[in-house]
Amino acid sequence: MSNPAKISATVRNFDNAPCGYLTFDEEGNILETNNRLREWLGISTADLEGSHVTHLFSMASRIVFETSIAPLLTLKGQVEGASLDLRAKNGAKIPVLLSAEATGTGSQRLTTLVFLLADARRNFERELAMARSEAQAQLLMKQREGELREQFIAILGHDLRNPLTSISSAARMLSAEPLSDRGKEIIKLTQGSIQRMSLLIANVLDFTRNRLGGGIELNLSDGKELEREIRQVVEELRSAHSGREIRLEISKQESVRCDVWRVGQLLSNLLGNALTYGDPAQPIRVVCSALKDGGLELSVWNGGKPIPPSAMERLFDPFVRSTNHDDPRGLGLGLHIASEIAKTHGGSLDVSSNVERTVFTFRLPNGELET
Amino acid sequence: MSAIARHNVQTSGSGERVMLFAHGFGCDQTMWRHVAPQFEDTFKVTTFDYVGAGESDSSAYDPDKYAKLDGYAADVVEIGEELNIENGIFVGHSVSAMIGALAALQRPAMFSTLVMVGPSPRYIDDTDYVGGFSGEDIDDLLTSLKDNPLAWSASMGPAIIGNPDRPEFGHELAESFCKLDPEIAYGFARATFTSDNRADLPNITASTLILQCRDDIIASKQVGEYVRDHIPKSKLVMLNASGHCPNLTAPDQVSAAIRDFV
Q1: Which of A40, A117, A150, A296 is the most buried (most CB within 10 A)?
Q2: Number of domains forming the structure of chain B
Q3: Residue of B nearest to A69 (CA)
Q4: Which helix (H) or strand (E) holds A236?
Q5: Which residue range(s) make up the domain with B93?
Q6: A10, A4 in Cβ contact below 8 A?
Q7: Pick from B33, B137, B218: which is nearest to A67 by CB?
């Protein structure tokens, strides 16, 4: 059983509910409004008589209402949460969220609008939008700066190569001259330094090329030259580090399709790492063997302090250098480039490290790279 | 990508002449869903979405090209070329009335008939000319679109429509209406509401039908009469409808008036 007194109280409450409410007919003429809405707008029922619904909105919102909300109400029958401005009699703008529903057709068509005040929300949205556009602008600027920096490095690396090539051939010519024992020693050291520098430049160039979107290019061959390349890399590093022992163990194997020079660069980087961080008193081992499928497995072993677990995660990231070493050398690009070379080949580069030994292993499955 | 693909061009019907329907600012080709099909028996009926609206290819948006209505008119000409339109009828709602006029000025042989629904050659008042809006109103609109991009977000999502007249479609027909990319909507609003094509009207050679509603706050009766007075071969028909979108609220009247004219 309904209670008439309670119902009339409800109607009165609705008149003052915390939302604006209005209905209009098929022509857009306002039929009824609640007290709350009239209060917001500072108008009386008489003011509203026969007036068109669009007149309650600011000019900007009238355009939005007529070009977007009204068509949607016809097509869809409802609109939820559109953000518009009402205009009070005194000219003040009142930001509101609008939900609307239309029922019936022809002259029976009735549209109901409900408004919620949205001042705080509008400010919040505006702040969000501003924060987003600022963040986007900053990101864009940083990206441009980053690109410029990388281009600079790429050009620098490229320009450093030429004089280095001259120094290298000068040193080679000089080594063919009759020299004192001390002179021979100095030439050897010089050639070691030239070789390190040239590897460093190659890594920097690869890194920037990769970052600039060029990627690491592979010059694939049948891999018959690989063994010779591995021997040569080991030989070069041996002669540059005469105080260190590097053992090379190559088992007989099928040739595997790869970029021979790149695999040499990978090995060079792994050996450079082992020479820098390994215990100088213990030999370094380079082991080259065949995978079951005929692919290649190439690993570099060294003794000394193990790599701390905390460093493992970012080991192949660029610019990461050992923190448990007193003499950090290089840019920390060697392992990154090595892992990129492995990836580009469709292979893998893994590491295991304990108190006895640290081993980096490059695996290149057979048939990974098509002709 | 072809202009046909970029603009989600839809073609139906059969006939000698092509009738190209163009939507206005704020919506997409669904604006014509109650009118266009009525011409399928006698015309080749074509609808499309401008870049940034509906199912068009938003990636084709170029802020410089679309800073003026000419950018949109160039697209209309491109669509016309791909469809080999000759002696066609361009039906443009709202801002599209002027886009169609620009296209017809460029290619008079492509569109020999123009139908303008709620046209306005200039929205901002100018000395003796009453466009209906002050420069401030339009600045206000553009500012509100810029810092209140969510104005439309609620209305842009896909919706299930219940169609009381066609129960066979029921609630299965999931569609999105009036989808607008907010960034592009801002650019389109600017190109639209800052346009001034009054000087182009006297050069139009196409025979032109102007359809005008009562109480249209976007394009008033006065503006419609101005358009009629300045296009040489033109006729104005007052519809018994109010608002800016008679193609939705009074589709049968719109169709009847077009049929009478062409």
Answers
A1: A296
A2: 1
A3: B155
A4: helix A226-240
A5: 3-151+181-261
A6: no
A7: B218
Amino acid at A163: P
| Catalytic machinery residues of B | 94, 216, 244
Round to whole Å and give the CA distance between A42 and B254.
39
What strand order describes the sheet that includes B207-214?
Answer: B10-12, B44-48, B18-22, B88-93, B111-117, B207-214, B234-242
A86 reaches B (C-beta below 8 A) = no
Within a domain: residue B156? no
**What is the rounded CA–CA span in Å between residue A142 and residue B196?**
40
- List chain B residues with CB under 8 Å of A56: none
Chain A CB contacts of B164 below 8 Å:
105
Please give the residue that has the higher pLDDT: either A158 or B195. Answer: B195
Model pLDDT for residues A267-284, shown as the tens digit of each residue:
999 998 899 889 999 999
- Could you give the CA distance from residue A72 to residue B177 in angstroms, rounded to a whole number? 7
Closest CA to B135 of A90, A88, A59: A59
Contact A59 B137 (CB under 8 A): yes
pLDDT tens, position by position, A158-173: 788 888 988 999 998 9
Does residue A72 belong to the interface with chain B, where contact is any CB pair within 8 Å?
yes
Q: Which residue ranges form the domains of chain A, and what is each CATH number? A: 4-117 (3.30.450.20), 141-215 (1.10.287), 217-371 (3.30.565.10)
Average pLDDT over residues A13-18: 84
Indicate whether B168 belongs to any domain: no
ipTM of this predicted structure? 0.83
Residue of B nearest to A133 (CA): B147
Contact (Cβ atoms closer than 8 angstroms) between residue A40 and residue A20: yes
What string of DSSP letters covers B101-158?
HHHHHH-TTTEEEEEEES--SBSB-BTTB--SB-HHHHHHHHHHHHH-GGGTHHHHSE
Neighbours of B55 (CB within 10 A): 14
**Residue B222 confidence class, pLDDT cut points 50, 70, 90:** very high
